[in-house]
Amino acid sequence: MLGSSAIGVLRKTGRTIRACAAAAAALGVVGLASCESVPLAERAPLAIDRSQLVLWSDRPANAWMTEAFPIGNGPMGAMLFGGTEIERVQFNEISLWSGARVAVEGLGEEGQDLGAYQAFGDIFIHLGHDTAKLSRAVHTVTYEHEGVRYERTAFASHPDRVIVIHLTASKPGAYSGRIQLTDMHDAKVTAQGETLTATGKLANGFEYESQLVALHQSGSIRPVEDGAFAANPWKIKAPLAGLAFERCDSLTLIISAGTNYIPDHTKQWLGDHPHVAVTGRIQAARARSVSDLRSRHLADYHGLFNRFSLDVGASSSQTLAMTTEDRLKAYLAGATDPSLESLFCQFGRYLLISCSRPGSLPANLQGVWNDSNEPPWAGDYHSNINVQMNYWPAEPANLADCHRPFIDYVTSIREVSARNTRQKYGKVRGWTVQTMNNACGVSFWKWNPPGSAWYAQHLWEHFAFGRDTDYLRRTAYPVMKEVCEFWEDHLKRRPDGTLVTPDGWSPEHGPQEEGVTYDQMIVHDLFTNTIEAADILGEDRAFRDRIAGLRDKLLKPKIGRWGQLQEWETDRDDPNDKHRHVSHLFGLHPGRQITRATTPDLAQAARVSLTARGDASTGWSKAWKINFWARLGDGERAHSLLRSLLNIVDETRTIYGESGGGVYDNLFVSHPPFQIDGNFGATAGVCEMLVQSHAGEIQLLPALPKAWPTGSVRGLRARGGFEVDLDWKDGLLTRAVIRSISGRECRVVWADRVWRVATTPGGTFPLTIAP
Ligand code: FUC
């Protein structure tokens, strides 16, 4: 079992405190408060309990994309390198966007200035410790240098909205060096007292600021402006201003950053200068002790992370003794490593908690992490699969709160998108989007007519899992309804009454024409969800019936000449087509138009299409295929796709096609390059293998692979307002508990067993498994 019980063993047996620190820092399983009180010198040498949820390495990172480790608190993210000569901490804030804030009327598909998600800056801590003996777990770095043991921990706190880096050593006065704060847009950096500040303004009017305060025990810190320590291995220009520290026992760096972005188009997305807010956060955080900051962070983090645990089998002690990189290499060579698979699933949850919290923008193509002002595909909100895939795990993996930034983003762009949509499609109600989108709803490149309907699916799913009728009425339904209105106005009626989506495009290949399966299926899904929503709310009868009438007339999915599910109305699918997008299977996943029980022929056709498409592709494409095979009930294929995604790669150039997407040493999914949707899609895929709830019932272990004969899951959410705990042994269910949030009745299915469970809100309902 993952989670607190395993860590509890670690504590009881007195294995190293630092092991506890590393594990907790990695994926936050246990509080660190107790670790704080133990003097460093009394601690045992680093011996990470590697059965825990830890990413670790025995050398510093050289490369940002493939080797550095991420932390984040929602709006802010950072990548930690773990250097001893120089520590580099590259940081971001999710609202720093270049490009237009307001679309210019009359421009074509590629006319707008989309801009790009920007890198914020770096912190360099020059330490001058030249050592190779290092252990680096996410957040924790330990090493020895000239007989002194050094330790560095870092965390990004959501409650305090700061990043904290804490450096301690086994000998007093061991820290002397230099701290630099750099800015990726040449802002002026100033040093005053113990504080570094970078304040700047982008050409589009976005103002931003980052601040770093360095607190110290003993020794001294003073501002300097001398250009010393100008060099670093990444050739990043360091400002003249810095903080010089000498003979300190310990250091605590507190970092905060922000912009004047606000999610309000009526104010052109511009709010107050961030100086006051950033200063306030720094001041509030510096008034607390590190252990207080850390326990507040962990209480918040555990509140989310510990809602879900997963055990799909233990890995061998030899495997567990390896660094993450070596483990991945052994796995690629064929080793079995079930705890690496559960770690990968949980890592997706860790990333979502770290980059998507209520109150800030949603996760973009790289979550929040980005070291470039020209990231691949602008680090945008890509509407034809990618931003949606980011949010697939949010509901089932029990992180519904982390879904909120996406829902709020969709809400924030409605009006500007409606204006843009009318320019394109004339007098229509509702709205939709193009493929590439920035933080301000400025859209770019190909129109993606069903994009808004796919977004609306997320607003519905948040309700379907949580059953908050008030949210459905106020937030989700108005969006679903106006997107339906777009299709009411935009669908084309053929002489025989069939309704087709005009001028569509199956992303990102084939002709532009009407009746494309991708469009038809997403509109079908939108109408289905909206009809259910109206029924639940008991409102809007006439509208609901009209939409139901339209849905009945939609062009239906077709089976083609080689038994495949047709991607287009014309039977032109090429059995040798290996394209990464598998958009015509939307109805299988994430939609529910195709299920094994209700549409077995279409499910079989989907299987034929999927088999022809093959497995080798980009990272996110493999992740989607895990979900498809899980929905088809094929645990072996789902697991082999998971294995093929967990394939260690080092390619960082952009490659499409059969490039062999995989993971880097740091478990970031590689498209290539790094693109975070694959991480999130894989987490969702593992959930789909264990529990499905899209077809009006809760299916237990619908796609359990032989590789996971014995295991357990806790806190997996199901539609209808339920949480599911399962244990299985030798492939057979041994324990199942339904926890009811909604108090509704549910039908539960495992193999040929069926249970009808009448529940009460807050109640726990164990199923009787014995026949
Ligand atoms: C879509 C995909 C690409 C890439 C990009 C961000 O356009 O076709 O593979 O993932 O989004």
Q: Overview of this structure, please?
A:
Helix 11 runs antiparallel to helix 13, helix 13 runs parallel beside helix 15 and helix 19 runs antiparallel to helix 20. The strands form eight sheets. A nine-stranded antiparallel beta sheet has the order 1-6-7-8-9-16-13-12-11. Strands 2-3-4-5-10-15-14 form a seven-stranded antiparallel beta sheet. Strand 25 and strand 26 form a beta hairpin. The N terminus is likely disordered. With 771 residues, the chain is of the alpha+beta class. The structure holds alpha-L-fucopyranose (FUC). Alpha-L-fucopyranose binds next to loops.
Structure at a glance:
The protein has 771 residues and is α+β, with helices and mostly antiparallel strands. The chain contains 20 helices and 34 strands. A hairpin with a 2-residue loop joins strand 6 and strand 7.
Bound molecules: alpha-L-fucopyranose
Amino- and carboxy-terminal Cα gap: 27 Å
The dominant shape is globular
Number of helices: 20
Write the layout of secondary structure elements.
Blueprint (H helix, E strand, L loop, with lengths): L3 H9 L4 H11 L5 H4 L19 E2 L6 H4 L1 E4 L3 E5 L5 E8 L27 E6 L7 E4 L2 E6 L2 E10 L4 E8 L5 E9 L4 E5 L2 E7 L5 E11 L2 E6 L15 E8 L1 E10 L15 H12 L3 H16 L3 E3 L5 H4 L3 H9 L5 H18 L25 E2 L3 H5 L9 H13 L1 H12 L7 E5 L5 E6 L2 H16 L2 H22 L1 E2 L5 E2 L3 E2 L6 E2 L3 H21 L3 H13 L46 H14 L5 H13 L3 H11 L16 E2 L5 E2 L6 H14 E2 L5 E3 L10 E8 L3 E8 L2 E9 L5 E5 L2 E5 L6 E3 L5
Parallel strand pairs: 28-32
Antiparallel strand pairs: 1-6, 2-3, 3-4, 4-5, 5-10, 6-7, 7-8, 8-9, 9-16, 10-15, 11-12, 12-13, 13-16, 14-15, 17-29, 18-19, 19-20, 21-22, 23-24, 25-26, 27-28, 29-30, 30-31, 31-34, 32-33
The structure holds alpha-L-fucopyranose.
